[in-house]
Amino acid sequence: MDQVNLPLGLWLVQTLAATFLITGFVSFERYLWRQATLVTQQLRATYRVLQWLLPLGVALLFEYGTYQGFMESNMLANIGVAMIVLPLFDEAVTNWGYAWRGLGVVVIWGLQRGSTLTRNWPLLVLLLVNLLLIRRTHHMLRHTPHWIFVITVSMVFSFWLDVTWAPFTAQLAWQAAGMYLVICTFVALFWARTHRKFLLDQQMQALIDYDDVVNDTTVAQDRAVAASLFRGAQVHHEPLTVAAFDVDHFKQFNQAYGHMAGNATLMAVTQTLRQVLDQTQVAYQLNHLGGEEFSLLLPKVGLAQAITVVNQCLTQVRTTAFPVEHTTAQVTLSAGVTTLHEQDQSVDSLYKRADDSLYISKIHGHDVLTVEGQTTTYDRDVDVNQLAYFAQPIEGVNAQGSVHWAAELLLRRYDSQSDQWRLPARFDIAVDKQIVLISQALTVLNVQRVNVNLTLAQFSDIETAKSLVSYMHSGRGPQQLTIEITDVPSVTVMRRVSALYREAGILIYIDDVGSDNSYELVQKLLPYVNGVKFAIQNLRRQESSARIHERIQFWLDIAQRQEISFILEGLEFPDEVTWAQHLGIQYFQGYYFGKPQLPLTA
């Protein structure tokens, strides 16, 4: 049947219909490709053949419809051409697969030319040039819409210039060309958006799985390499230096920004360390041990040179602004360093000494380098005017609802350059400055129960305890002050310090039980504390729900036997609160109830 020039409205309707049909087709074609990677080798060949035959077969059906004058030949012809041309941009197609698809394109082109093939040979040359160009650049074309548009314009001339067969007039040819441009442009934009989402999903999955890459296999491989370096250093009487790194206050970082941001920052810290080490041009082995811990082996590097290298690592990390939630954040590292001793029997001796030095660094307040047990960097001077306590609610929940029971005070530093509050580089501020910040927060808080975190060095310091006791006796303090500790002291220190705090009615809670603090580590300390906090967020990424519930029940039972309080923190979802209430848990903390905020805006 004869075709007439389409009215604009009808052309738009046909263009939209063809565009969405083609988009669905290319999505299905992509689905077949992904399925082919998931099935057995025998079925894979079937999927590949189906993927090659499907575009050509469907395109030929639409071309047949065009010849027979079904519906609107304008739309059918465009659908047929698009179905055979667009799969050419697939970046994963093999040479044989591309040759088959290219042959299909030439066949469709020939059917459109009919008896005019001879005089249209320049257009055939243009078509072949396009096919060659697509193949040579297919790895970059699919996800760059502007280049697909350029190739599409060239294809338009190949297919729609001088179309003389019966169903088409010159005007219809131009309408067909316009429709084809719209179809291909929309699909190109759809591909680009889908690709961006795919890359984003990959990045998100990488962040989620980052800690999972540290498994028994990788640890065993790293240990094997370390043992080999140790034996070589002994045989050839060469130096071997080991450093242990730990990202300071990483628990607080995760509380402030979330675990996804925490994993992203760990990845960025790893990259920063590698960049520094590459610039030093020394041989090294950097291992991520899981969580915020790293180890560094420096074969044939003496202690003096290793100290320089490690200091460069600490400085670079300290001065780097890591991207977090549309802003930036800063973190610091503490490090312990040791070198090969003549009496060492295995590389484990070096690892232990490095860990012991790292522990000393963290006792001294973090952002510290300790070499063979001697601390080389330590500075407590902090401007209190740049600091403030943010408050996160601790809720008491019962059958009647929730009550704002207490608030945990979390230290933040004001960055004037970005006009934002960030985590401070260090948390071990002098106790007199800490008291000033507590008093400032109390003036605007609507609760008089506050929890404050102390580092191990602060908690172990008798003068700090005496100052807090005096503060509470002065009547200027809160009705109830609770000290939270994550790094636990020895039993001797706990017995001596807890007696001072108990006399002033100051409570002591051990944080991160069940994750950073195991039962074996804190068992002998429990008689001296008033409560424990279980951080569910520390386990959510690597443990199943059933395993987390089992641990929570274990620590709840311990708290009940010891007759001490139990706070479940890190709650983000209502079903977690409901489940915990069924266990009889009364106190909760987490983003579900509120994020840390300045008390003025809380």
TrEMBL record:
<dbReference type="InterPro" id="IPR043128">
    <property type="entry name" value="Rev_trsase/Diguanyl_cyclase"/>
</dbReference>
<dbReference type="InterPro" id="IPR035919">
    <property type="entry name" value="EAL_sf"/>
</dbReference>
<dbReference type="InterPro" id="IPR029787">
    <property type="entry name" value="Nucleotide_cyclase"/>
</dbReference>
<dbReference type="Pfam" id="PF00990">
    <property type="entry name" value="GGDEF"/>
</dbReference>
<dbReference type="Pfam" id="PF00563">
    <property type="entry name" value="EAL"/>
</dbReference>
<feature type="domain" description="EAL">
    <location>
        <begin position="371"/>
        <end position="602"/>
    </location>
</feature>
<feature type="domain" description="GGDEF">
    <location>
        <begin position="238"/>
        <end position="374"/>
    </location>
</feature>
<protein>
    <submittedName>
        <fullName>Signal transduction diguanylate cyclase</fullName>
    </submittedName>
</protein>
<dbReference type="InterPro" id="IPR001633">
    <property type="entry name" value="EAL_dom"/>
</dbReference>
<feature type="transmembrane region" description="Helical">
    <location>
        <begin position="118"/>
        <end position="134"/>
    </location>
</feature>
<keyword id="KW-0812">Transmembrane</keyword>
<dbReference type="GO" id="GO:0071111">
    <property type="term" value="F:cyclic-guanylate-specific phosphodiesterase activity"/>
</dbReference>
<feature type="transmembrane region" description="Helical">
    <location>
        <begin position="146"/>
        <end position="166"/>
    </location>
</feature>
<dbReference type="InterPro" id="IPR050706">
    <property type="entry name" value="Cyclic-di-GMP_PDE-like"/>
</dbReference>
<keyword id="KW-1133">Transmembrane helix</keyword>
<feature type="transmembrane region" description="Helical">
    <location>
        <begin position="172"/>
        <end position="192"/>
    </location>
</feature>
<dbReference type="InterPro" id="IPR000160">
    <property type="entry name" value="GGDEF_dom"/>
</dbReference>
<keyword id="KW-0472">Membrane</keyword>
<feature type="transmembrane region" description="Helical">
    <location>
        <begin position="49"/>
        <end position="67"/>
    </location>
</feature>
<feature type="transmembrane region" description="Helical">
    <location>
        <begin position="6"/>
        <end position="28"/>
    </location>
</feature>
